[in-house]
Design goal:
It is a single chain. By secondary structure, the chain is of the alpha+beta class. It has 2 domains: 73 residues, Arc Repressor Mutant, subunit A (Orthogonal Bundle); 128 residues, Umud Fragment, subunit A (Ribbon), CATH 2.10.109. It has 4 helices and 12 strands; from the N terminus they run αααββαββββββββββ. The strands form 2 sheets. Strands 3, 4, 5, 6, 7, 8, 9, 10, 11 and 12 form a 10-stranded mixed beta sheet that branches. The chain has a two-stranded antiparallel ribbon with strand order 1-2. β10 and β11 form a beta hairpin. α2 crosses α3.
């Protein structure tokens, strides 16, 4: 039974609601800056409030890890699901495709899983998606699908000559061209003919080990 001491304040309720809605919409937790802007407070106050909410048992977060916030209610209601770690995905220029014939199995929170779809994990190599909180060495959860909407982070296969390379980028359709946009200010988008791009899945979650 919860006690009054463990109940969130009105400010904390607003923060929790924002985090909850952000995660459900984006499949990744918000940054301190995201929370600060939405709540009208400083990032220092965000850190203080998250610490208090963690002490109350209402969320968990790793202080030295970006986008690691989890709402406790989400953890409680969604049991883990075993998903195979199939290989590596480039968050850069692309990486030659390979799949592990004997994949490691990763326990993934059930809130990342969509009923009726296949899912798999990939390890990220590179920093082209760093502004979305996806870093080198992270493990991403991917929902298998061949289509994408503008703004989706996708696993795309680049077909060039006889070689196929896989990359993780933000997807945009511009009529007769497909834009694969990095989330790193030092890198620029690349544009491809639709026939040279194949979407293999959509990013739906991140695991930082």
């Amino acid at each position: 039974m919860s006690t009054l001491k463990n109940n969130p304040t009105e400010k904390q309720k607003k923060i929790l609601d924002f985090i909850d809605n952000y995660i459900r919409k984006n499949n990744i937790s918000p940054s301190f800056t995201d929370i600060a802007r939405a709540s009208g407070i400083s990032t220092g106050t965000v850190r203080d409030q998250l610490s208090l909410l963690q002490k109350k048992g209402l969320l968990s977060w790793a202080p030295n890890t970006k986008r690691s916030i989890k709402i406790r209610s989400q953890e409680n209601f969604y049991p883990n699901v075993p998903i195979p770690l199939l290989g590596t995905i480039s968050a850069g220029e692309g990486i030659n495709i390979y799949e592990n014939s004997d994949p490691e199995i990763i326990d993934v929170s059930g809130d990342m899983i969509t009923t009726g779809f296949g899912h798999y994990c990939l390890k990220v190599a590179g920093y082209s998606m760093a502004q979305d909180g996806i870093l080198d060495g992270d493990i991403i959860v991917v929902r298998q699908q061949a289509s994408a909407s503008d703004g989706d982070n996708v696993v795309a296969v680049l077909k060039e000559n006889t070689e196929e390379r896989a990359t993780l980028k933000k997807f945009y359709h511009h009529g007769n061209k497909i834009e694969l946009r990095p989330r790193n200010q030092q890198l620029e988008s690349k544009f491809y003919n639709p026939s040279s791009i194949e979407v293999r899945g959509k990013f739906v979650g991140l695991i930082r080990q």
